[in-house]
Design goal:
By secondary structure, the chain is of the alpha/beta class. Helix content is about 30%, strand content about 20%. The strands form three sheets. A ten-stranded mixed β-sheet has the order 3-4-5-6-9-10-11-12-13-14. The longest helix has 16 residues, at about 140-155. The protein is elongated.
Length: about 375
C-alpha cells in the first residue's frame, strides 16, 4: 500500500522557498506574492479561498499543501471572561497551550501569549512547563500558526491582536532560528505587518543569544526572567543560571537596550520567604538602578509540584518601596487566568483525553474568542 506523502505546511515556507516551489510547479514566481498575501494579510485558512489564483493552481495547492498544522482540541475560559487558553494538537500528536488576554487601557487590547517549544529544557523550579522537560522545538510555521489562528478568529468579531508575547511554553532563545524566522515573518510589512514594538521575546537569560538578538536589528521587546539578584539564590531557582552570572546577564540586558533603544524588562516571580526579602530588593535596586529597564513583579502562581507561596500584600508593598527608593521603574502584574492555569509558569503539555471542555464558561453558545472580542468596557490598570 502506497504511503501518502505529507502535505507541505505553507506557514513553514519562507517567501523564497514558496517562490521556488511555484517555479518547480511551472508557475510564474510572482504567484508567490499573491499566495503570501492570502496567507498573512487575508488569513486564508484553505487554498480554495485564494480566488485570484487559477483553479488548477488552487487544486494543486490543496493536494500538495496545507495552511498550518494546528488542531484546536480544547478551550478554557476564565470566569471573568478576560482570558482564554487553547490546547492545540500538533501533526505528530504533541500538544501546546496558547493564551489570549483581553485588557482595556486607553484602547481595547488583545495580547496573545504563544509557545515556541513542546515543554522546556530550562528546568525553572517554580514553572510547570520547565518541570516537564523538553519534547521538541516548534517550527517557525507552528509558532506563526498560533498567531494567525487567533487573529483569524478575532477578525470575525471585528477585533484584532494588539500584542504578541513569546512567554508561553518553552525558551524562545533556545529555539533561536525558528523564533527569529517567526518574528521576521510576523513583522513583514508585505504580510502580517505587526509592529516590532508589539512583540516581546522572553528568556531565562541565554547570554550569547541575547547578544545575538541585539545584533538582529529587530527592535522587539526583551523580557529577562531574573527572579534573583545574587548568583547563590538564582542558581537554585533557574538551573540555566549556572552558566552565566547575574552580572553577565544584566550586562547583556544593558547592551540590548543600548543597541535597540528599547528598555529591557526584568521579570521577578515573587516567592514568599525566598526572593521577596529586603536584602533581595536592595540587591536588585543596586543592580539595575539608572538602566533603561523596567521590573515586572509577578506574585507566584501555583504550579505543582513546586510548593512555594506568594507573599502577603505588605511584603509585596515593602519590596516595591525599596525599588522606588532606587528609582527603579516597576509594576505589579495583575493576575489573570489563574482559575484555568493560564498564568505565568502554569502552562503544560496535556494528553488529549485530559481535556476539560466543561471548564469553558460564559454563554454556552459562545464560540471561542467571542467574549474577549466584545469585552471593550472592562477597565484594567
Amino acid at each position: 500500500m502506497a504511503v501518502r506523502p505529507m502535505r507541505i505546511d505553507l506557514y513553514s515556507l519562507t517567501f523564497e522557498q514558496l517562490s521556488d516551489l511555484l517555479v518547480e510547479w511551472g508557475e510564474p514566481s510572482w504567484r508567490a506574492r499573491q499566495i503570501w498575501q492570502w496567507l498573512y494579510r487575508h488569513l486564508a485558512a484553505d487554498p480554495a479561498e485564494m480566488t485570484n489564483l487559477s483553479l488548477p493552481l488552487r487544486e494543486q495547492l490543496s493536494r500538495a499543501a496545507r495552511v498550518g498544522g494546528l488542531t484546536r482540541v480544547d478551550v478554557q475560559r476564565s470566569a471573568d471572561e478576560k482570558t482564554e487558553k487553547w490546547l492545540f494538537q500538533l501533526p505528530d500528536g504533541e500538544t501546546i497551550e496558547t493564551v489570549l488576554m483581553s485588557y482595556q487601557r486607553r484602547t481595547p487590547g488583545r495580547t496573545l501569549c504563544i509557545s515556541c517549544q513542546v515543554g522546556c529544557a530550562m528546568g525553572c523550579v517554580f514553572c510547570a512547563t520547565g518541570q516537564m522537560g523538553l519534547a521538541r522545538h516548534l517550527t517557525a510555521g507552528e509558532i506563526i500558526a498560533q498567531v494567525l489562528t487567533f487573529e483569524r478568529d478575532l477578525r470575525r468579531w471585528g477585533s484584532k491582536l494588539t500584542n504578541v508575547v513569546l512567554m508561553g511554553m518553552g525558551e524562545p532563545l533556545h529555539n533561536y532560528d525558528a523564533t527569529i524566522e517567526a518574528v521576521r515573518r510576523l513583522l513583514d510589512p508585505a504580510g502580517f505587518g505587526l509592529g516590532a514594538r508589539r512583540i516581546t521575546i522572553s528568556t531565562v537569560g541565554l547570554v550569547p543569544r541575547i547578544r545575538q538578538l541585539a545584533a538582529e536589528g529587530l527592535q522587539v521587546g526583551l523580557a529577562i526572567s531574573l527572579h534573583a539578584a545574587t548568583d547563590a539564590l538564582r542558581t537554585t531557582l533557574v538551573p540555566a543560571a549556572r552558566r552565566w552570572s547575574v552580572a553577565e546577564l544584566v550586562a547583556a540586558g544593558r547592551d540590548y537596550s543600548e543597541r535597540t533603544g528599547r528598555r529591557t524588562t526584568y521579570e521577578w516571580a515573587l516567592i514568599k520567604g525566598v526572593n521577596d526579602t529586603p536584602e533581595q530588593a536592595h540587591a536588585l535596586g543596586g543592580l539595575v538602578a539608572g538602566m533603561l529597564c523596567h521590573v515586572n513583579l509577578i506574585p507566584l502562581n501555583p504550579a505543582a509540584p513546586y510548593n512555594g507561596q506568594r507573599p502577603r500584600p505588605q511584603e509585596i508593598t515593602g519590596f516595591q518601596e525599596i525599588l522606588t527608593s532606587y528609582r527603579v521603574p516597576h509594576t505589579l502584574r495583575q493576575r489573570r487566568g489563574i482559575d484555568i492555569e493560564a498564568g505565568c509558569g502554569q502552562l503544560r503539555r496535556r494528553r488529549i483525553n485530559d481535556t476539560r471542555n466543561k471548564s469553558l464558561t460564559g454563554k454556552p453558545d459562545d464560540p471561542p474568542v467571542a467574549s474577549l472580542a466584545r469585552s471593550h468596557s472592562t477597565r484594567y490598570h
